[in-house]
Design brief:
Largest sheet: 7 strands, parallel
CATH class of the largest domain: Alpha Beta
CATH architecture of the largest domain: 3-Layer(aba) Sandwich
Radius of gyration: 30 Å
Helix content: 25-40%
Bound molecules: 1,4-dihydronicotinamide adenine dinucleotide, 2-oxo-3-(phosphonooxy)propanoic acid
CATH topology of the largest domain: Rossmann fold
Strand order of the largest sheet: 8-7-6-9-10-11-12
Distance between the termini: 27 Å
Number of helices: 18
């Protein structure tokens, strides 16, 4: 049974998939104190939030069972992604479900800002019939500058064109061609700022966008321009905006988001020219139902080990690629695990080569799984698909992935090479049609071993009697040999024995094996 904690208000209709799942216990409480949250998270397998709950490192560290954090919405700036990755917790979001609602909210703010609707309404509610004070401006023929032309930016553009506005947009991913297709003008950030009568931002809040609209960039804008922020507080620098409105450079602003929320007694709210809503962009029945459903399904997929649609802290993989790779997952992990268990020294570099059927597939997820298999020897079950790369990079281990046309006669081949400060070891494996995974090469020795169960790897001299002596000694210790493979470079030279046995080999047995004539090294492992 998976325990899923929902700590922000979510649409009950939207989370039906969770409520109806027989393997899920959903606990929904949006009024938890910090202490209560720490207690609740300690026994939860998943956490689902919106933008209120601050998912800090402290919270994640109190959650030994936590496997996934779901964000019922787009922005993940309230989640400590590094901490989640460090602890192998997958973060997923629901980026599609609230696009329309937020774009519509932006349009509502745009029109309200142009026509002073909130201010006029406020006066009228106080029984003051003011008309002269609230003369607005038309949108027609005005230029809307859009910074951040993703899902919401694009939807806002289409709606603004319906108002006969001219739209100019900047986004590092927006090409001339894409802009033409969307019917907007493509501009640099400077051009957008210089031409906008209304400027609206729709980027995530990241290092590059923090205070993107600041004292200097506001200087580039037309006198009397207006600014909207329905994306994230902090993209527009609040002090700079306050000053620009005060000195008349900027005629007004519409804000749905603030650097600190809830924004109570905020200086910007004291300005007549500023209209505001309390982070309502995604607050519609439809959006909330959409995001709650999307995130519920993704969270359950993570818990059940399925493919994740919207991962935030690991690369997303198309279902098509996933289907091609899935059969290789066990092979990649076992090869990595086998090799790291027989390699001595401090790990420095991992090279993974793919050939045959894997030549034209995006094999990054397989490399991640190989690295997980390798690192398990050192950090146990704490390493998983999410943190394998980061853990390796934190430890200064270099990971390389290469495609090779040499198949060595196999239809598919995965080769892992490990470099430590003491040695370099290589293993190759394949998926045999209908027969499953096989290790086909260990260093220079060709073998044929199923990578599972208890294994013994013995380096020895290719001399008569060596194999017999190993068999007798194992028998003395009641260790039954299931399979045995021998590989050698040349007759009488160096050789390797790989045995699969029915139970784990005890230390004294391993020691005695090491003392047998012609045996040079004995390594025991369990896959
Ligand atoms: N007010 C609210 O309730 C809501 C706010 N949001 C926020 O709206 C924002 C946009 O959301 P979506 O359109 O769904 O995201 P998106 O990911 O589809 O689009 C964001 C775009 O910003 C662009 N971008 C990144 N850095 C940039 C930079 N330095 N300059 C210009 N563009 C840059 C990206 O290339 C991307 O195209 C996010 O911050 C999200 O959290 C989203 C939903 C509701
Ligand atoms: O999806 C987003 O990024 C939002 O800002 C929506 O936030 P909310 O879920 O309404 O707290």
């Amino acid at each position: 049974m998976y325990r899923v904690l929902i700590s922000d208000p979510l649409s009950e209709d939207g989370i039906k998939p969770l409520l109806e799942a027989s393997d899920v216990e959903a606990v929904m409480d949006a009024s938890l104190s910090h202490e209560e949250l720490l207690k609740e998270i300690s026994t939860s397998d998943a956490l689902i939030v919106r933008s209120q709950t601050q998912v800090t490192r402290e919270l994640i560290e109190h959650a030994p069972q936590l496997k996934v954090i779901g964000r019922a919405g787009v922005g993940v700036d309230n989640i400590d992604l590094d901490a989640a990755t460090d602890h192998g917790v997958v973060v997923v979001n629901a980026p599609d479900g609230n696009t329309i609602s937020t774009a519509e909210h932006t349009m509502a703010m745009l029109m309200s800002l142009a026509r002073n609707i909130p201010q006029a309404y406020h006066q009228l509610k106080q029984n003051r019939w003011e008309r002269k004070k609230f003369v607005g401006v038309e949108l027609k023929n005005k230029t809307l500058g859009i910074v951040g032309f993703g899902r919401i930016g694009n939807e806002v553009a289409q709606r603004a064109k319906g108002h006969r506005m001219k739209v100019i947009a900047f986004d590092p991913f927006l090409t001339e061609e894409k802009a033409n297709k969307a019917g907007v003008q493509h501009g640099t950030l400077e051009e957008v700022l210089q031409q906008a009568d209304f400027l609206t931002v729709h980027t995530p809040l990241i290092e590059k966008t923090k205070h993107l609209i600041n004292k200097e960039t506001i200087q580039l804008m037309k006198p009397g321009a207006r600014i909207l922020n329905c994306a994230r507080g902090g993209i527009v620098e609040e002090d700079a905006l306050y000053e620009a409105i005060e000195n008349g450079k900027i005629a007004g602003a519409a804000l749905d988001v603030f650097e600190e929320e809830p924004a109570i007694d905020h200086p910007l709210l004291s300005l007549e020219e500023v209209i505001a809503t309390p982070h309502l962009g995604a607050s519609t029945v439809e959006a909330q139902e959409n995001v709650a459903t999307d995130v519920s399904l993704d969270v359950m997929d993570v818990l059940r080990g399925g493919a994740v649609k919207h991962p935030v802290n690991m690369p997303s993989v198309s279902s098509e690629v996933m289907e091609q790779l899935a059969p290789y997952f066990t092979l990649a992990e076992k090869l990595g695990s086998f090799l790291s268990n027989v390699t001595d020294g401090a790990l420095e570099k991992v090279n993974v080569y793919y050939s045959g059927d894997l030549l034209d597939v995006d094999t990054t997820p397989l490399t991640r799984i190989s690295v997980k298999g390798i690192l398990k020897r050192y950090i146990g079950e704490r390493v998983n698909d999410v943190n394998a790369y980061k853990t390796a990079s934190d430890k200064g281990i270099v990971i390389n992935e290469q495609k090779s046309t040499s198949t060595k006669g196999f239809t598919n081949l995965v080769t892992i090479e490990i470099e430590t400060d003491q040695e370099k070891r290589t293993i190759s494996g394949t998926l045999l049609n209908g027969l499953g995974a096989r290790i086909v090469k260990l260093d220079e020795y060709s073998i044929d071993v199923v990578p599972e169960g208890h294994l013994i790897v013995i380096h020895h001299k290719d001399q008569p009697g060596a194999i017999g002596r190993v068999g007798s000694l194992l028998a003395e210790h009641h260790v039954n040999i299931a399979t045995m493979q021998v590989g050698r470079t040349n007759q009488g030279g160096e050789a390797v024995m790989v045995l699969t046995v029915d139970k784990a080999v005890e230390e004294d047995c391993q020691e005695q094996l090491g003392g047998v004539a012609d045996i040079q090294q004995v390594q025991c492992l369990t896959l």
